[in-house]
Amino acid sequence: MKAVRIHAAGDLRVEDVPYPTLRPGEVIVRMEWGGICGSDLSYWKHGSTGTATLTEPMVLGHEVAGRIAEVAGDVAGLEVGQPVTVHPATIVPGQQLPERLAGRDNLYPEVRYFGSAAFSPHEQGGFAEYRAVAAGQIRALPDGVNTRQGAVAEPLGVAVHAINRAGGVARRRVLVNGSGPIGALVAAAARRMDAASVIVADLAEASLDVARTLGVDRTVNVAAGEALPEDVDVTFEASGAPASLGAVFNATGRGGVVVQVGNVPSGAVSAELAAIVTREIEYRGTYRFVDEISDALDLLAGGLDVEPLLTHSFPIDDAAEAFAVAGDRSTGSSKVMLQLS
């Protein structure tokens, strides 16, 4: 069967790999769609993402959906042909969280994640025609949600978790700085979660076009000299650019909250932080999600339309071209999709 494997920076291949073995407690999913994430692009460009570095070939992909092809005899409640997506995280047994972190399973010391080189051996991803998946990681797609949309449940879950980290957005003015795929999904989810208004800022007009199509209240083209709003209640910093932090903090009202959604560089950075003190701003991190992928499926079933985000699609054989388009914002790409089978 075919799979998209990264061997080193710049060395992406579509290769034949063995069909997976079905073990107790598992199903085999015939993957249909996968979304290319920023971490996938980082492995392709740099051979690493954050502190995770490739040391062996790895199948990429953690934003996937498909249909169940086989079910182990000890698995109940799942059926062949059922459309599903995957919660890509597995907590490594034998660990404990301190009581203050109860329920925050994404913060366990070792969480293995589809398509991640954080631990050795690496956790193979889902950009393959078939993948064996633990039954507990399977999330059935609701009626009306197809597998193309279902592949977006994982990044939408990241967006919902970020909103939860902010303490919710209901009746609050929201700014999203950065309208890449995650920023756009934060904005779309915030509209569905009763934000008073949602403003999106970016340097690229194509990215702002996606945000407009998703129904935000206002966009700001920073490259064109447009100014960020003032006194917003919650800001989601989704660009990952430390140079933007000063303006982001200045746009956030006194006593407001800034949630860092975009991955910042792992090394030392220079940023203007004075407003954190003078405005008593709470600056919070957000990392993946706990089980907000289920909330994301509810949003999709409730009518959240992610199609405007899905700007390009490629068959698995054209994975190299898909990555090139996804990694070049001048193409107008947002979420680039791979048709896996």
Automatic annotation (TrEMBL):
Name of the protein in its database record: L-idonate 5-dehydrogenase
Spans traversing the lipid bilayer: none
Enzyme Commission (EC) number: 1.1.1.264
Family: Belongs to the zinc-containing alcohol dehydrogenase family.
Keywords: Metal-binding, Oxidoreductase, Zinc
Occurrences of domain Alcohol dehydrogenase-like N-terminal (ranges): 24-143
Organism from which the protein derives: Spelaeicoccus albus
Entries under PANTHER family matching the protein: SORBITOL DEHYDROGENASE
